[in-house]
Amino acid sequence: MTGPGTAPATEPPYVRTGSAATDASTSMTSLATADLAPADRPTGAAPPSTVNRGRPWMQIPYWIVLLFWAAVFMYPFLWLLSASFKTRANVFDNKVIPDPFTTANYGEVWHVAPLLRWLANSGYIGLFAATTVTFSSALVAFGFAYFRFPGRNVLFGTVLGSMMLPGLVTMIPVFLIWKNVGLNDTQVPLWAGNLFGSAFYIFLLRQFFLALPRELFEAARVDGCSYLGLFWRIAVPLSKPALIIVFIFEFQASWDDLLKPLIYLGNKTELYTVPLGLNSLYVKFNPIAGGEGDFQYIVTAALLATLPMILIFLFGQRYFVEGIATQARKG
Q1: Are the CB atoms for 255 and 308 separated by under 8 Å?
Q2: Does residue 19 lie in a domain region?
Q3: Which domain range does residue 88 map to?
Q4: Per-residue pLDDT tens digits for 156-167
């Protein structure tokens, strides 16, 4: 009760009575069931996630198509795996299960060729190539994404236009440059060119940097952060999935490259990478060139050279998915 000169008693703001409580309860119930019955769904329609839940037979055609194409893409690797356990006489018999079965190839392949040295060469060359191109391309891409200056779009278009220039056109001039600086017959040309970045990776990373909130960089500038600090402390940590994707792409490209080692390494077997080493084994064992046809060693070495890339893919798979999901959310 209230008397003269007494302010009316008020209820605490968190207390609701009567129709107000009913309205609040109704609102909370509506929010909680928004996923179950959205406004744009026809009355009585089942949620999308449960449309085929009671009819699993409708998914059988999709599984058949998926398994068929999976088998098509997996067969070459299964053939390579099977051939590595076969003898010289049966290496090309196209049987999935080796008969007879032997593991001697995995012990002898290390003696017929310096495979371990070739794997090490490909490993550290790929590491240098991937690291340099990731850093240099990211730095250039950040410049195109953050800074506003006259002619930026024209300059960026010129960078993209360089992608239209075939590598065969610049092969001889680049070779002459490395020869004149005295680095021919070394492994330096196999990775040092990546210090100048890659047009494709610049484009890829620039698009990722453009999706980052510009307010983060402006706030950091107000706090006195340098431009290099913006790149290293903000852009790089937020773009880790894209940077790892670029690193994996370039490592795989360097690992599989045969042309550049064939041009720059000459006949120095100790400098060979895995692709060039496998090519030398083919020439060595080819009966046309006077070899004994020991192709079982070639397929075994090829299988061993494939395993590092499989492990790298398994490691980087989550970053592929994360990068795609991040771009989808930002788009």
Answers
A1: yes
A2: no
A3: 77-112
A4: 999 999 999 888
